[in-house]
């Protein structure tokens, strides 16, 4: 939409603290989107809606974000504004995947379907920015299947090339981030190498939110590589950064991986950190973090000799993972749930749960997971025969 630029004397003080300005004006901006939709001013509606995304994301105003985008998206589709449709779909994919209540079907499946639609739309528009974002989102969605690593990595690399060709730093940042996620906990060294490249983009981009993201992922990667102190220092630094930004979703991620690190090293702070992660996740509808925090707490219950508490917590984690559609996480949590039933003396249920976990690991070609479950099932069978 056409923009009127205020004089520097006016814009300067406002740009000095844009979050404060959005804090004062976001309600009026959202009302403006609704009014633009009523007046069928399509370009104004989607342009104004898109401008609020970063603020609404950081401040956790997800319900209003989703309603506003859905209203403007409907208008774009009615009036045939394909660019507006693409812009709003990108924002909606973010909020409906990570911060909305469970919807129809697994969240990651809906993410993949939406990203595929966005890629088709952006390709038809010949919009490299939209294409790069769609490729990165599609790559991310494939991690839920567990066995799409090569395809996901190829998509993320294509997203990076597309963004670089378009001088789109934000797209390069997103592509590196997704590459690190694809490598994940199973290949933390590769994730760490990608994140080292991402730090250079962070410096060029000068975006505090992205810098926080890379810092926390680097911390997690270092910890999984065995550099416990280096990982803890970066995770604690990213936690401070997220709190200075008042960015609850980022804060919750840092807390989650600190709780995992504390649990792995026997640090007494593990439970309190995981419980705070859980509280933030419940309040913000952070489904992925919610399921993961419950898994950490269930493992702590089991380690502390309380199988009934572990079973209750891990069963809740499994229920949430099923709504997410992230097979590797579900399989790992089922494995621990089987351990909890075994510790409680319910060997029949333990076997049933382990069998499901082994089948999931087999489906995603996770050989280590299959071998581990084969060992548990063999020991359980030998125990029944003795």
UniProtKB/TrEMBL annotation:
Q: What is the lineage of its organism?
A: Bacteria, Bacillati, Actinomycetota, Actinomycetes, Streptosporangiales
- What PANTHER family does the database record attribute to this sequence? RAPSYN-RELATED, TETRATRICOPEPTIDE REPEAT PROTEIN 28
Pfam family example for this protein? TPR_12
- Show the SUPFAM superfamilies listed in the entry: TPR-like (SSF48452)
InterPro entries recorded: TPR-like_helical_dom_sf (IPR011990)
Q: What is this protein called?
A: Tetratricopeptide repeat-containing protein
């Amino acid at each position: 939409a056409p923009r009127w630029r205020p004089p520097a004397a006016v814009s300067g003080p406002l740009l000095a603290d844009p979050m404060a300005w959005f804090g004062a004006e976001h309600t009026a901006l959202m009302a403006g989107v609704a009014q633009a939709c009523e007046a069928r001013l399509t370009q104004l509606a989607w342009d104004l809606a898109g401008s609020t995304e970063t603020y609404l994301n950081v401040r956790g105003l997800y319900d209003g974000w989703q309603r506003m985008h859905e209203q403007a998206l409907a208008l774009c589709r009615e009036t045939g504004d394909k660019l507006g449709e693409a812009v709003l779909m990108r924002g909606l994919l973010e909020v409906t995947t990570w911060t909305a209540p469970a919807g129809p079907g697994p969240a990651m499946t809906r993410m993949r379907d939406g990203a595929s639609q966005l890629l088709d739309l952006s390709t038809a528009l010949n919009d490299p920015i939209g294409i790069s974002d769609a490729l990165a989102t599609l790559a991310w969605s494939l991690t839920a299947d567990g066995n799409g690593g090569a395809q996901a990595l190829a998509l993320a690399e294509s997203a990076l090339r597309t963004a670089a060709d378009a001088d789109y730093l934000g797209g390069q940042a997103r592509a590196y981030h997704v590459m690190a996620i694809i490598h994940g906990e199973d290949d933390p060294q590769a994730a760490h190498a990608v994140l080292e490249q991402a730090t250079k983009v962070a410096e060029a981009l000068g975006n505090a939110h992205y810098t926080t993201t890379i810092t926390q992922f680097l911390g997690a990667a270092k910890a999984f590589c065995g550099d416990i102190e280096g990982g803890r220092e970066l995770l604690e630094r990213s936690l401070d950064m997220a709190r200075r930004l008042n960015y609850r979703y980022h804060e919750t991620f840092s807390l989650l991986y600190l709780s995992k690190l504390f649990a792995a090293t026997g640090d007494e702070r593990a439970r309190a950190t995981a419980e705070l992660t859980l509280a933030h996740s419940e309040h913000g509808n952070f489904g992925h973090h919610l399921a993961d925090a419950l898994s950490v707490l269930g493992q702590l219950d089991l380690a502390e000799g309380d199988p009934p508490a572990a079973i209750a917590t891990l069963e809740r984690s499994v229920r949430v993972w099923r709504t997410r559609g992230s097979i590797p996480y579900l399989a790992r949590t089922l494995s621990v749930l089987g351990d909890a039933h075994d510790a409680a003396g319910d060997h029949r249920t333990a076997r049933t749960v382990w069998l499901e976990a082994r089948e999931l690991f087999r489906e995603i070609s996770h050989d280590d997971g299959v071998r581990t479950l084969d060992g548990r099932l063999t020991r359980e069978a030998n125990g029944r025969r003795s």
